[in-house]
Amino acid sequence: MSAIIEPCESRTNTTPEFPMGWFSVARSHELQVGEAKRVQAFDRELALYRTRSGKPQIQDAFCPHLGAHMGVNGRVVGETLRCPFHGWRFDAEGACVEIPYCDEIPERARVRTWHCEEANGEVYIWFHPQGLAPKWPLPELRELGDPQWTPPRYAEFEVPAHIQDIAENSCDPVHFQYVHGQQDVPPSEVTVDEDGRHLHLHLDAKNAAVPNKLHSLVESPGLATVRTSYGPGAEMVVYNSAQPIDRNRTLLRWTLTVRREIEDLAGDEVMNGIIAGIQDDYPIWANKVHKHKPIFCREDKTLVLYRKWVRQFYVDVRELA
Ligand code: FES
Ligand SMILES: [Fe+2]
């Protein structure tokens, strides 16, 4: 099997697999101690819970016994999750530690667990298609909790697109004119770090109503930090972290914070502006296919760069075989 499916013009089978990386699955405040919930990500059903000691854990949803979904009415018991159907309990490593009506636990009574971490007010899963350990640390948003920055505002939006195609959008200067109706698209530059890991987008909106400079740091598909400066001390950060629900649906989570100096100037309207922008893209995303091998023209340099950069996040099983 190959990680990238061969191209064919059907919406159901041209989209790529899921890239490796960190992906948010919940806001921290949405997961209370002792709570278990259902998460859909990577075309899988998962069970997310917070243990009594406060640690978030994530595992495959379906119980190895008779297949109940442990994220739906599963019960947190200490550091374990108890299946709602017959009470089998599983620990953080996925081992069954108790069957209430039997003193012998079958060796194969296990569920797959996923590496889970919490930062930036979010709970993240490390996804790797072969289950390998994290290859890079989770980025920390240094502005959160800093008294010079406002408490975060949140917004969520589900988009009908593959996670790769969403990040591609910000490396696509031409579409701002056609899709977003911007006549005067500020000059942009897309670059990749020397080591190839991060992608950077720089915009210099000199002629905007409020002139500003934007820098977007893309860690991986689905994780980007956008810093906008309107002058010394007048700064804004929008952190975008995504949950790939399946190949054609992605949940975007934004976290916005601004310097106290501009607290009264930038707030809800910034969030509303972002959501309005996404709504312009919506009909394109809802109806397009993912082009595995697009025909690019000479001026599509930033798109070509993006496609080269994004390949590192996919595991091509053919290469490993
Ligand atoms: S299905 Fe989970 S304990 Fe029976
Ligand atoms: Fe767009």
Structure notes:
The protein has five helices and 18 strands. By secondary structure, the protein is an alpha+beta fold. It has two domains: 30-127, Rieske [2Fe-2S] iron-sulphur domain (Rieske Iron-sulfur Protein, 3-layer Sandwich); 153-313, Naphthalene 1,2-dioxygenase Alpha Subunit, Chain A, domain 1. The chain has a seven-stranded antiparallel sheet with strand order 12-18-17-16-15-14-13, with helices on one face. Strands 2-3-4-9 form a four-stranded antiparallel sheet, with no helix packed on it. Strands 5-6-7-8 form a four-stranded antiparallel sheet, with no helix packed on it.
Q: What keywords describe this structure?
A:
single chain; 321 residues; alpha+beta; Rieske Iron-sulfur Protein; Naphthalene 1,2-dioxygenase Alpha Subunit, Chain A, domain 1; 2 domains; seven-stranded antiparallel beta sheet; four-stranded antiparallel beta sheet; 33% strand; globular; disordered N terminus; binds FE2/S2 (inorganic) cluster; binds fe (ii) ion
